[in-house]
Design brief:
3 strands, 12 helices, elongated, MCP_transmembrane, about 65% helix, 3-stranded antiparallel β-sheet, about 350 residues, iron transport, mainly alpha
Length: about 350
Amino acid sequence: VHTKRTGTGSRGFLGMAYWDRDGEECLAFPDGSEDSEPDYEGLPQGASTSTHMLAGAVAGIMEHCLMFPIDCVKTRMQSLQPDPAARYKNVMDALRRIVATEGVWRPLRGLNATAIGAGPAHALYFASYEKLKKTLSDTIHPGANSHLANGAAGCVATLLHDAAMNPAEVVKQRMQMFKSPYQGVLDCVRAVWQREGPAAFYRSYTTQLTMNVPFQVLHFMTYEYLQELLNPHRLYNPSSHMVSGALAGAIAAAATTPLDVCKTLLNTQESHTLSSAGQSQGAHRHVSGLVHAFRTVYRLGGLQGFFKGAQARVIYQMPSTAISWSVYEFFKYGLTKRQHNNMRIQHIKAEV
């Protein structure tokens, strides 16, 4: 039997080629397996959690930072009673007027708060999702993909993500509002803490969960379903990750817009809204809780109020989730490839 070192097909990982007695060339790796390729959907043992967390953190930061100007527009368009100078026709009109009247950097105000929160939040999000998806799938439907497992994993991942991200969301949205009084992130944190107490940073947490649990269930289940259609062999395929992520994000965003409007109200505590609702003084100086927020939105905006900023939300979520999944899958694939190569090389050196 003659051997040589070679690469494997499209992924190019180090292996060994040999010719059998019939003269056929076969491919084998140092672990004795034939035609073996590293499956980036199933990472090497002992390294999967750290790889998912690193890939998730990078994906989350890039997702939020690249789409931040649209997120700023979404927050303003969801205002129930905006200042006359902050009434916008559509997303492009809003961006144009914000830049023209408030400066070119105004749509990026609060970006640093988002970047600080997005890293750990998305690291927990993707790592827990991947771990639970595999564990629950093996339990519910061994050897195959389970939509129920994907949905359940998405729910748990959302609990962890929102716990880490909610304070950053409060700061970010308050700084995005028209005529925001805060000088910077630290000034906003200090002012909210002193005036409203630490509980203010989690006032919208239950509403965020109420929105994000169905959002992520729809998001993950749609993404996994589209991957089965567009990428059934689950290879690294950037175009399929991007298309699946964009469509999954759009569907989930459109369905959960009413809850997002309520979340924005709870986070920003708009002064005009509180005054109109007769809550500027007395026991109810703040909108608190999902039911209270729903009543306030309906009283001031009617049914249409629940869909304020829907266009901006969908426009934000489509590229946002496409970027998130594409970057996540890219880093997961790249890190896994490097890890696999190192393991193979170490194995070969050990045998030599």
